[in-house]
Each structure stands twice: as C-alpha cells, then as structure tokens.
Specification:
With about 210 residues, the chain is α/β, with parallel strands linked by helices. The protein folds into 2 domains: about 120 residues, HAD superfamily/HAD-like (Rossmann fold, 3-Layer(aba) Sandwich); about 60 residues, Putative phosphatase, domain 2 (DNA polymerase, domain 1, Orthogonal Bundle). It contains 10 helices and 5 strands. Helix 2 runs antiparallel to helix 3. It has a 5-stranded parallel sheet with strand order 3-2-1-4-5, sandwiched between helices. It is elongated, with a radius of gyration of 18 Å.
C-alpha cells in the first residue's frame, strides 16, 4: 500500500466538494419559483438571519418562521422542509475519491463546514458521510463559522495532528486563503480532474 510521506489528515468542506450546497441562492430561487415567493424578500430575510442559523443558535423551524412563514402560506412548513432537504445532491466521484484516499493512505478526514443543524444531520445520514469522515467540525455544532479563523484552529485541536501534516480541500477561495494564512496547506477545489492532480503534488496520487 502506497502512503504519503507527509499528509496524514484531510480537512474538507462538504458543500461544493462532496455535495451540492445545502441552501444556497440557487436553491432559494427554486423555492421561490415552486412556492410562489418573493425572491427579493426571501433573500433579504435569509441574509439577516442565516449566520445565526448556521451558528447553531437557531433551529430550522424558527428560521422558517422568520424567513418564510412570517405570514400565512398556502403550504405547510413540513412541505417546505421536504423541499429544502431535497436540494442536496451528491458528487459521487468526489465521495468515491475521498473514500479511496482514506483507505489507500490511512488518512484522518475532518469536515470543516458551515452547515445548519437539521440540514447537516440530514446530509450526513442521507449520503453516509460518517462512513469515511472521522469527525464533523460543523458551524452548527461548534458555534463558529468560516471565515472565522478560529474554526480552523478548533479543527486542528480536535484532529490532534501537526499542522504540516494537514491538507485542506475547499471550493471557496477566501476560505483557502484564511487556512493558508494559518499555515494549513490547501487545495482550491474546482473540479475532480484538477483536484486529483493537485492531490498528487502532495503525495496523494490517485490511481
């Protein structure tokens, strides 16, 4: 079995790397179309409260009361939540890649992500992420969210590995830059092919 000489731990984002984003502007646009909502008002209310929601200080039901159900609707909260959850889709090749890397190089894998609690739990269970991710430093669990650098410091404390043994996989350039500013080697994920090439440069060759 081939092993990397330096990288023992992968930090990675969930939305944009393993799965689609859970509740981004595209998903909200689809919701506005399906449920005949005012997209400008939906986004305005979302942006006023989403940081509190992703920090785990607001449950989904309360978030929806503020953002959607502040007035009477013709559809139920349960129906809307079902739609929200259904927006999450996997990137099968990336999931397969991370499973393979973990086995091939005996890596520790830590998810470092901004996720709201109910969606995070659903996504972990639905796509069996806990089968290859060792721990989840999710904003809703730790009450810190990117771009706060403290979420990366906490992930390092949780992982208990030297910083030079960690490689971070992330699709948002700002977050890559913040991690690199702390000394965490990082890859800006654009697509499967380029990420595989970049992984090889760190000794994690994909056969």
């Amino acid at each position: 079995m081939k092993k990397s000489n330096s990288i023992t731990t992968l930090f990675l984002d969930i939305g944009g790397v393993l799965l689609t984003d859970g509740w981004d502007h595209n998903a909200r646009q689809r919701a506005a179309t399906k449920f005949n909502l005012d997209i400008a008002e939906l986004n305005k209310r979302h942006h006023l409260t989403f940081d509190t929601y992703e920090d785990g200080k607001l449950m989904l039901e309360e978030y929806l009361k503020r953002v959607v159900f502040y007035e009477k609707r013709s559809f139920s909260s349960a129906h809307f939540k079902e739609f929200m959850f259904a927006q999450s889709k996997p990137y099968p090749k990336m999931i397969e890649l991370l499973r393979w890397l973990k086995t091939q190089y005996r890596l520790k894998i830590v998810a470092v992500s901004n996720e709201a609690r109910e969606l995070n739990t659903y996504r972990i269970q639905k796509f069996k992420l806990a089968e290859f991710v060792d721990c989840f430093v999710s904003s809703c669990f730790v009450h810190l969210r990117k771009p706060d650098a403290d979420i990366f410091r906490l992930a390092l404390d949780v992982a208990q590995v030297p910083i030079n043994r960690v490689l971070y996989l992330e699709n948002t350039q700002m977050f890559v830059q913040i991690a690199e500013g702390l000394g965490i080697q990082s890859i800006l994920h654009v697509d499967y092919k380029t990420t595989c090439a970049k992984l090889a440069s760190f000794g994690l060759e994909v056969s």
